User: Which sequence fits this backbone?
């Protein structure tokens, strides 16, 4: 069903994926630079990226997908059940993966070069899995949702997806946007706005 509410939900999901993809590409870009012998960035950028992912996709984006896209979809059809089960399992393991990533970064900060390879490999694996995850949501889940969800399903999803639910808002307003801007300003062009490397 193509309605205003459906278009709004799809636009929000795609926008959130674009922000997440920019951050993950930035993280992968920096580990590749270091792997090639380039200058390591201020490691604060990795911490900012991990914080962004843990505060936004993990706490806001995934729960909204589970509740307001996957659940109604499952109530209407079991045709994409295998895909939904896989994606939900990835949502559930997301936080643990980020903790692993964070720990690998901490080890790199303290132990230096000998601990870099593990951090590098975790970032590459994380990026591969996440890009595939978003690809399946955009090419399988959303098109199927357009076929089977009702107008009521979409309106409920639109209400929830468009709600302002910045989990850092108790720290200061627009905090996630500021964090995202900080990441973009440190990340070099063409991925971000910082000085080209
Ligand atoms: Fe997801
Ligand atoms: Fe998603």
Assistant:
């Amino acid at each position: 069903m193509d309605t205003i509410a459906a278009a709004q939900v799809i636009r929000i999901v795609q926008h959130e994926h674009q922000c997440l993809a920019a951050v993950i590409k930035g993280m992968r870009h920096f580990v590749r630079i270091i792997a090639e012998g380039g200058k390591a960035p201020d490691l604060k950028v990795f911490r900012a990226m991990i914080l962004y992912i843990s505060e936004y996709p993990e706490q806001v984006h995934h729960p909204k997908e589970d509740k307001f896209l996957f659940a109604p979809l499952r109530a209407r059809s079991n045709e994409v059940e295998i895909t939904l089960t896989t994606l939900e399992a990835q949502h559930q393991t997301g936080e643990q993966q980020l903790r692993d990533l964070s720990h690998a970064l901490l080890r790199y900060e303290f132990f230096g070069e000998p601990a870099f390879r593990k951090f590098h490999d975790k970032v590459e694996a994380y990026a591969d899995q996440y890009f595939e995850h978003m690809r399946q949501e955009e090419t399988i889940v959303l098109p199927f949702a357009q076929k089977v969800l009702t107008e009521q399903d979409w309106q409920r999803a639109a209400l929830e997806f468009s709600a302002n639910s910045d989990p850092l808002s108790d720290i200061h307003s627009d905090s996630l946007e500021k964090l995202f801007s900080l990441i973009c300003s440190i990340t070099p062009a063409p991925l971000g706005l910082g000085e080209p490397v």
Remarks:
- The chain has a mean pLDDT of 87.
- The pocket of fe (ii) ion (ligand 2) is lined by residues 13, 17, 61, 65, 134, 137 (CB under 6 Å).
- The radius of gyration is 18 Å.
- The longest helix spans residues 116-148.
